[in-house]
Amino acid sequence: MHIPSWPQAGEREAELLQLVLESPQWGGFHDFVGEFEQSFAAYQHSAFGISAFNGTVTLEAALHVLGVGQGDEVIVPAISFISTASAVSRVGATPVFVDIDESSFNIDPEAVKRAISPVTKAIIAVHFGGAMCDMGALGYICRERDLVLLEDAAHAHGSEWNGKRAGSFGIAGSFSFQNGKVLSAGEGGILVTSDEEFAGRVRSLANCGRVPGRSFYEHKNLGTNLRMTAFQAAVLMAQFERLPQQIAIRTANAQALKEALRDIDDIQWQREPAEATQNSFYLLIGRTNSAPVRDALCQGLIEAGVPCTPFYPHTLYQNELYRRGGCRVMPCPVAEECIQNAFWLPHNVLLAESEVIEQVANVIRARAASQAVNAL
Ligand SMILES: Cc1ncc(COP(=O)(O)O)c(C=O)c1O
User: Fold this and answer.
1) Catalytically annotated residue among 72, 108, 134, 152
2) What is the phi/psi pair of residue 306, to 5°?
3) Which DSSP helix (H) or strand (E) runs through 96?
4) How far apart are CA 334 and CA 169, in angstroms?
5) CA distances from residue 269 to 32, 65, 102, 225, 248 in whole angstroms, order as listed
6) Is the pLDDT of residue 373 over 60?
7) pLDDT in tens, 58-100
8) Which residues does 349 contact at the CB level (< 8 Å), separation at least 6?
9) CA of 57 to the centre of ligand 1 (A)
10) How far is it, in rounded angstroms, from Cα 57 to Cα 67?
11) pLDDT above 70 covers what percent of the chain?
12) How far is CA 120 from CA 37, 66, 95, in A?
């Protein structure tokens, strides 16, 4: 079964990389970096983009500039990559883990409400797998309770909620361009925002405390160097040209796969609410009725040459780091169930030819059926 490999590169990457190689500027001051920042921020419906060498430091930078620190709590979903929570800890604040919603797999707004305390400062919304969180509900909670909304949009390049793109809802959105992401430079990240003052402060932090209009060796603020290289920007510019078409292919294939498996009751796919006007499908996430069904399904797919991951092996708070403390944990029964019975297919599966998508559906169908017989 031919599943396209990822990441992918073509002549365009080579052409733009060659331009960088031939230029006297290989670092973050090459025009490509600024050009990519502007076009990506605009694509995500934001006014400013500040790139960085990965999507973990962008989260840390955002929290730092927001003044989140010692004594503050930040509400995060129990299911995400570690950076969502570690960024909170690294600025000295306390992550508060809340449950995910059973159909969207995203942070549950009702669970968020129950977790708010007098020291809650912010909520980090992670658009898991590319599917947007309920931005209506989260936006409302933040306005009512005077909390900052930060989007960890590491999975959500191009995703939309009611026509508005990820990263443009809260103060800022953080994206990752790590190896497996739908827009990849091996490593890389960007913060997008429409708040000019915030953008200026993040830019200064990321650029050794410099401010516009001053000389290279003048450092007004305490900063650091988070700059992305021109090589990263060159690769990203090339990848970005293909992104809209790839999103369309993934979306069509996700629909085709789900349609082919419509009668399989054992699998509940991540819900796509009507408000999610575009999903970039970083992951195609599903849940089965039990751990044995999930394991058999993943095993069948892997044997057939289709990459499949049996979800995260644990919730974030079950990591050794957080078992030692330094966090607050709300009840998370859905998250704990998902680690037993959920799975995902990576986005490159959804770039396969339509006959391959049919074969993938057949493998899933056969495995689900054999497990149903075993259960009799
Ligand atoms: C949800 C989420 N947030 C943050 C990150 C961190 O991004 P990076 O690997 O670019 O540091 C990732 C990375 O995979 C992620 O999945």
Assistant:
1) 152
2) -105, 120
3) strand 94-98
4) 26
5) 39, 37, 10, 41, 19
6) no
7) 999 999 999 999 999 999 999 999 999 999 999 999 999 999 9
8) 3, 253, 284, 306, 307, 360
9) 10
10) 15
11) 98
12) 31, 13, 10
- Residue 324, exposed/middle/buried by CB under 10 A (0-12, 13-18, 19+)? exposed
Question: From CA 340, how far away is CA 336, in angstroms rounded?
Answer: 7
81 touches ligand 1 (CB under 6 Å): yes
The tokens describing 304, both together, are 């057939």
Pairing of the two strands 73-77 and 120-126: parallel
* Residue 346, ligand 1, Cβ within 6 A: no
Q: Which two tokens stand for residue 266?
A: 């054992």
Residue 376, pLDDT score: 54
CB 211 within 8 A of CB 198: no
Q: Tokens 């030692």 appear where?
A: 324
Ligand 1 close to Cβ of residue 150 (< 6 A): no
Q: Ligand 1 within 6 A of 94 CB?
A: no
Q: Would residue 195 show up in a list of annotated catalytic residues for this protein?
A: no
Give the residue carrying structure tokens 């499949």: 308
Instruction: Evaluate whether 287 touches 268 at the Cβ level (below 8 Å).
Output: yes
Partners of 98 in the β-ladder = 77
Tokens 């995260």 sit on residue: 312
Q: How many CB atoms lie within 10 A of CB 362?
A: 13
Clarify whether 227 is annotated catalytic: yes
CA distance linking residue 295 with residue 210, whole number of Å? 52
Q: Check if the beta carbon of residue 115 is closer than 8 Å to that of residue 95.
A: no
Which H or E run contains 114?
helix 109-115
